[in-house]
Amino acid sequence: MPSGIVLTLIIVGLLLLLCGIVALLIYSYAVRIAYRFFGRPQPRPLVDRSPLTIDQNTIFGRGQNWFYSNRLNILDWQMTAFDGIKLYAYYIPASKSTTRDVVILLHGFNDAPSVMAAYAQLHREKRDCHILIPHLRAHGMSEGNFVGYGLHDSQDTAMWMQYLETRLGPDLKIILHGRSMGAATALMTAGSGIAPGTLQGVIADSSFDALDTLMAYLMQRNYKFTFRPFLMLVRYVVMKRFGYPIEKASPVSIASRIAVPVLLFHGTEDELVPSYMSDNIYNRIRAPKRICLIDGAAHVMGYNAAPEKYSAEIDKFRDSISDSEWQRLIGRA
């Protein structure tokens, strides 16, 4: 064989090998991104213990401290999800067992469920109500190896609502109040058509509009590129490894189906989930709606940055639901 042909074959072989190595590196990086977004953020603890230290410089830290100071009065509930995993929740009963008002608090990604205690205090100051704080799948005491981002969690939340009816009886008046991923969960529960008729309203703090657009935004912010074929590869890996269809985790796509009043909060300095995402959701909602932007607030820090404003908006929201004058809810704050 002539030396020129041999040299050509060697060069082609080296190029193919190089291409294979590059392709393997790209795929490995896509797997890494997939697990970073979807893998369980913290190992499941054997028991639920108070953190060794709680930062009480924020309203959420003080709420968490209140939670563990009153832990003996807080019940642990357990339920089996649609796919067989065990889900856990904190239940704080109302002062009066006959109370029909219930607030379900839904935490965000890598949040401790007990951080939602600050919102529990807020709602209980306004009205005697039962409080349920689910540990979303792959968080806290709940089982699960991958994060639901509202798609799976919305089904879990609807099941928790049904579970509440079996424990507390019918004719409940349930409000969903979530932040970040929990906000997306609340919106998707309301818009999916699977929520019981006991759902009265949704409070969504710092929700993303669609998971795929959020991932593109975060990749641009963190890694300085958003190569669409690479995102498609990540989507393929997530579907292959977790059976999770990223494109279906989209509150904005079902926002028009929500039939109950919605109150949206978002901080103007949110760099993790930009505030325009709540605007996108707001523009799609046909039900009575209100959006409140908190000047200078970072991600999910609106209540901490402007507690009086936050509380006043929830007052308006609850009053609108109570007297059925929903049109008063419509507008921007």
Blueprint of the fold:
Layout: H1 3-38, H2 59-69, E1 75-80, E2 86-92, E3 101-106, H3 117-126, E4 130-135, H4 151-168, E5 173-179, H5 181-191, E6 199-205, H6 211-223, H7 228-242, H8 251-254, E7 262-267, H9 276-284, E8 289-294, H10 302-305, H11 307-323, E9 331-332
List the keywords.
44% helix, 16% strand, 11 helices, nine-stranded mixed sheet, Rossmann fold, 2 domains, alpha/beta
Read across the widest sheet, the strand sequence of neighbours is: 1-2-4-3-5-6-7-8-9
The arrangement of helices and strands along the chain is HHEEEHEHEHEHHHEHEHHE
Intertermini distance = 80 Å
CATH superfamily of the largest domain, by name, is Alpha/Beta hydrolase fold, catalytic domain
Largest sheet: 9 strands, mixed
Low-pLDDT segments, ≥5 res: none
Strand-residue proportion = 15-25%
Instruction: Count every beta strand, where a strand is a DSSP E run of 2 or more residues.
Output: 9
User: What is the top-level CATH class of the largest domain?
Assistant: Alpha Beta
Helix and strand composition category:
alpha/beta
Rounded mean pLDDT is 90
What does the radius of gyration come to?
23 Å
**Helical run tally:** 11
Estimate the helix proportion, in percent.
Answer: 40-55%
